[in-house]
Each structure stands twice: as structure tokens, then as C-alpha cells.
């Protein structure tokens, strides 16, 4: 088992006016390559903060975070941007597609910042859209697509760079049951293909798709169970 | 990188097209600024050329010397009140200053000229033949009088087009006709080609020119033989004009026995002086108009900055998304800079069309000469680019420094 994510004693402290908020309090965590992990917790538990740090969108106040052997803390914002571009795919609750822009162009976006030629961008983006079952919809804009389809475009955008880590933050939060099932099926399939998937959710039946379930409370790991443990 | 820039330009154009009204209003300042710069400079260049043409009509290398007032026991007479300039002065200048190509002299007066039943008040100039060369006159018919005419005080005259128009019928040939000045019959030997107005606005064609000797002895008369109202000299090369002026001053001061700090009793004026005054005036005007145009460009730039700040706020979430998928600060910065430059370039382009049209219309409607130079257009357009770049920097930088998490969370 090769560890992809190693967190040691992560602290995150915000200042809101005079009030000091401790979002993470000495959290440690290891996630291996190829795992499918669900992170659960109530709002305010610190799971969003953890997501942001794992996704290299934010830096911990103290503590160490290694992603695929790279020490992330203390890196310049541009270096973090490069790590996100090379290794991480994001799927958000609110899809976060660029409005009035076609599915194909939305999917191309990460490749644009990699400096690939237009032809390579198109080829890879088309392949990614086909993988999530959206061939034929390349030129639809987000408003012309259903919620489930929009989320599939977002997944295509996340996997177009062949990332080692896919971070899904409440990916089914805005979807009906049928679309949710479709999205979860795609995530499971991607995981089977070797991508590490971290799923943040508060829905137990969605978390059940994951092989490992981590519950966060008050900025610390409350429980960490594998599927076997849960079944027993 | 080029692919990124190229795609960003396409995106910028698409956004502009989507917000056509907003973009149009934003570009208005730049359009007016660039248009105004081009129109103003074109009109200015046209005016400059017109002045240069006028100067050339006076003889570009010519120097004019005329008598100044003199002071007798503290009483200052008016200009030319005392005879201080003579034919002898002119001849001596020619002898002592090798730089001078031609030297001529003249006396003028206002007089009634008659032909048949008609008469006309005009300015009569008695001139040495060389004066004609210096003033660069040409002839629409006939030709100049000669040194022999001068020596014999022949009764011959050259007349300007305005005089022809007032004394003769249309189609009547003036050369060979006899006119009378103070009852002295004088034969016309040449008609001067029209020169139009002088830089000071007087009609250069309202003139009768006769030999100096004829004027002195038979027409204008004189109280002091050899006194002149003007000495005209010219140099071969325009560069020599200033040196010549200095030497003329020295020679005349010594001839007139002016010592120490006694003021000159003559005035030296070159066509270059006149040209400078004229150019100065038109440059001041152009400068003022350019200042106004610059203010318009400045306001246009502020408009661009304003709309970009709005755009950054509106698209905060989009910026967050782009950052999340790996856009570096440079990419975000470039995106908004390119948008600003696109705005100012499109505005500048429309402004160029406006400016050129305005300059053309000025020529057609007001009849002012305008010259639209390539470099005027390039400069004005380039200026609009610089404005876009400068005023785009702040919003672009603001966008690039957004925190990705906050940007993503922005509603």
C-alpha cells in the first residue's frame, strides 16, 4: 500500500474579528493510493476545511501535509495551482461550471492552463465527456443541461487531466436520487480504474458507496472505519 | 502560452459581444479620445502645411529690413519716421556680406491707379529688379522689367491679379496696356501670378510694381534721394539666414554709427520668424486640443477600469473555478488584461475610423486643409492600447490575488 495523502497534526486557526476559530485541531490522517474514502461530519466539524487543505486550495496553520511525496505546506500559490492542475480533480456540490460556456470548453479548462495545443485539448476533453456518457452534448452550455448532466461535465473536467486524486464535495447534494445513483456509479467506476476518490458527504447512503468512512468532529477524527468494520 | 493567449482573446471578444451595450458605453471615452487626437493632429498638420506654403510664397530664404523709429532728444518718432535706410545701405550689404545671394530695395506708397474710365486704389511699389527675384514672383503673362528699365527710369509696370480684375474686363489682355499713376502714363509689361493672402492677411495681389528709379523720380517722389522703405535680401540656403541676419545687423550698425547699447534704427525680419510665430500659434492650438483629447482618453481608461472591476466582482466564482483547476495568478491576470486591451483596441479602432472621418468632413465642410498621417493613426491607436493596459492592471491584479476558496464560495 502506497500512501497518497499523509497528514500529521494539522491545525487550522481562523481569526474572525476578535474571535479565534480552531477549524482543525491536530488532525492526522493517511489515505493510500486507490482508496475510496467518505469523509462525514456535521457542518462546523471542520470537514470543509480539511477538504480545502487536501485539495491544496488552502494551507494548514501548522502541521504537515504530504501529497504523493510532495510537502505541500509553505508552497507559493502558483505552485499549489500547479499541483491542483497536475494531480487533483474537483467535483463540487454546485457543479461550478463556467456559465455560457460549452461542456467541451468547460472540460478543456484544466488543459488550457497546462498549455496543451487546442487539438490535444479537444481530443482529451471529448474522450473525458464520452467516459461520463455525454457524447453528443459537447456543445451544450450548462443551462441546456440537467443537474445530473452538469455534474457529469464537472466530473469529466476533473478527470481530463488523469489526476491521482479526485475530491468530491457533496457531489449529489443538489441532485435527485436517480442522478445521484448515476454520479456515484461513475465515481465507483473511476475508483476501480485506480483513481483515489475522497467523498465529502453527510448522507449515510451516499457514504455507503465508499470502502472507508472517516467521521470528523470538532476538527479531529472521531472514527475511521473500513467497510469490513462497518459490516461487522 | 500562445494558445492560452489566443483562446483568452477569443473569450474576451465573446464576453464583449455578450455585453455589447456595456462594452460600447465603456469604449466611448476611448473612441472619442482617439478620434479627437486623430482629427486634431490632422487639422494641425494641415494648418502647418498651409503656413509653410504661405511662407514659401514670400520667399523662404528672404530677409526684410525696414527702418525703425529714431529718437531725437528723447522724442521718439514712429516707425520709419526718419530716413534711416538707403540704397547705399543695401549696396554696401551686398558688398560686405558674401552670404547674401540677392539684394534689392523698394519704396511703397498708396495711390490711385487709372485705366480708361476706371480707377482703383492700390499699393504702388518701386522696386529694384532683384527684389522681384527675392520675392519669388512669377508671371501669368508678360515678364519682369529689367536693369535697363531701372537705369533709365522706364515707365513700365507689373500688376497683380487683383488690380487686373478691377481695371480690366474679363478676357482683356493687360500686357501692353497703359495705366496712369499721378497722370504719369505707364505701360504694363507683366501680370504677376496670384499669391493670395500674406501671413498677416493682406492681399499680396493688390499691387503695382514699377522700377525703383521710376517711383523715386516720377511717381512717388522723395524728400531724400535714395531713401527706401525696405531692403530685401536673400541667401542661397535657408540654414544661412540666421548668420546673415547677424552680419546685416553688424554692418548696418557700423554704417549708422550706432555705438554701445544704442538701439537699432532698423528692424530685421526673416520669413522664418514669421513662420515660427505662425507655427507657434498652430502648435499652441494643437497642444490645447490634444490636452482635451488626452483627458478624454484618461476618462475612457477610468471607464475601462470601472467596468473591469465590475466584471471581476461578477465573475468572482468563475475566477475561483479557474484557480481550482490550476490557473496561476499569471493566467488570471492575463485574462483580465487581455479583456482590457481588447476593449481599448476595439474602441481605438472605432476611434480611428471616427477621427479619419471627422478630419475628412472638416476638409469638405469647413474647407480647412487636413493631413492624415500614418504615424498619427499609429500613435493614437498605440495610446489607446497603453491606456487599456494601464487601467487594466489594477483590476487584473485584484482578480489574480483572490483567494480561491473565498472566490469559489462567492454568491
- Number of strand elements of chain A: 10
Count of runs of 4 or more consecutive helical residues of chain A: 8
Spans of chain A with pLDDT under 50 lasting ≥5 residues? Answer: none
Our Rg estimate of chain A from Cα atoms comes to 18 Å
- The total count of strands of chain B amounts to 12
Instruction: Describe the sheet with the most strands of chain A.
Output: 6 strands, mixed
Encode the helix/strand succession of chain A as letters.
EEEHEEHEHHHEHEHEEH
Number of domain modules of chain B? 2
Strand content of chain A: 25-35%
Class derived from helix and strand content of chain A: alpha/beta
Mean pLDDT of chain B: 86
Oligomer type? heterodimer
Give a structural overview.
The complex is a heterodimer of chains A (232) and B (411). Chain A has a single domain, classed as P-loop containing nucleotide triphosphate hydrolases (Rossmann fold). In chain A, 35% of the residues lie in helices and 29% in strands. Chain A has helices spanning 47-54, 77-87, 103-112, 118-131, 147-159, 177-192, 204-207, 227-231, and strands at 3-16, 19-32, 36-40, 62-67, 70-71, 88-91, 165-169, 196-200, 212-217, 220-226. In chain A, the strands form two sheets. In chain A, strands 6-7-8-3-9-10 form a six-stranded mixed beta sheet, sandwiched between helices. Chain A has a four-stranded antiparallel beta sheet with strand order 2-1-4-5, with helices on one face. In chain A, helix 3 (103-112) packs across helix 4 (118-131) and helix 5 (147-159) packs parallel to helix 6. The longest helix of chain A is centred in the last third of the chain and has 16 residues, at 177-192. Chain A is globular, with a radius of gyration of 18 Å. Chain B is built from 13 helices and twelve strands. The radius of gyration of chain B is 33 Å and the shape is elongated. Chain B has 411 residues and is of the alpha+beta class. Chain B has two domains: 2-54 and 280-409, no CATH class; 83-264, no CATH class. In chain B, helix 2 packs across helix 11 (329-366). The A-B interface holds A 52, 55, 57-58, 77-78, 81-82, 84-86, 90, 92, 96-100, 109-110, 112-118, 157, 161 and B 1, 3-4, 7, 18, 317-318, 320-331, 404-405, 408.
